[in-house]
Amino acid sequence: MLVLRSGLTRALASRTLTPQVCSSFATGPRQYDGTFYEFRTYYLKPSKMNEFLENFKKNVHLRTAHSELVGYWSAEFGGRMNKVFHIWKYDNFAKDKEWQEQFLIPNLALIDKQESEITYLVPWCKLEKPSKEGVYELATFQMKPGGPALWGDAFKRAVHAHVNLGYTKLVGVFHTEYGALNRVHVLWWNESADSRAAGRHKSHEDPRVVAAVRESVNYLVSQQNMLLIPTSFSPLK
Q1: pTM for the complete prediction?
Q2: Radius of gyration of the chain, Cα coordinates, nearest whole angstrom
Q3: Which residues are 119's β-sheet partners?
Q4: Is pLDDT above 80 for 21?
Q5: Which among 41, 110, 150, 194 could bridge 48 via Cys, Cβ 3.0 to 4.6 Å?
Q6: Is the pLDDT of residue 17 over 70?
Q7: Contacts within 8 Å (CB) and 24+ apart, 91-94
Q8: Per-residue pLDDT tens over the stretch 55-96
Q9: How far, in Å, CA of 59 to CA of 53, rounded?
């Protein structure tokens, strides 16, 4: 599914690495391994959602034979409708010819638009798997230019304020490497949309959270979120 042009491959392979970076395409602080994550979004044609998900479910084994599916969701609220969002885990770039020929190409007629971002987990978090089913919120923050060296500590304190005080559960924090730069995605888990709303309301009245968020807002350009519902075949439920 992912293809790098040969010139770009050579350029990345020859890049001098610093001790903190373990992958030739990473330009900011990241985990100490070569793992990265693709955020892929399909905007489906109206009325084609069920057909597309059934076809994906039947063929997902072709895809997971080559890379790990972290989670697969339909967007319930936030932005454009008829949208599915999925996260894939990789150790390297590769082209999956079987997947393209047997699923992607035959189903292109159901897709209106595609988007892809390459991200990595920030150094101070690991990917968590909730112990039970729930709903997910993907909060996306467009930060000011300068990277984590400028806003990383303040952003970390804001995230930890929500987690440590029990208002929500953190699944992962991802920094974009290819796509819109200076963008951070935070994936949260809650038992239900109602519990998410209640936790958000309480956190807004907690001076400890307010103080931490106020600091990070100084580096924020914009933000948006989506409420995500796991599909039947999603590893993250």
Answers
A1: 0.81
A2: 18
A3: 37, 176
A4: no
A5: 110
A6: no
A7: 91/34, 91/35, 92/34, 93/2, 93/3, 93/4, 93/9, 94/2, 94/66, 94/67
A8: 889 888 888 888 899 999 999 998 788 899 999 998 876 666
A9: 10
Token pair listed for 51: 């057909």
CA-based nearest residue to 40, from 98, 77, 86: 86
Q: CB atoms < 10 A from the CB of 58, how many?
A: 11
- Sorted by where each begins, the domain ranges of the chain are 36-230
Q: What contacts 18, CB < 8 A, 6 or more positions away?
A: none
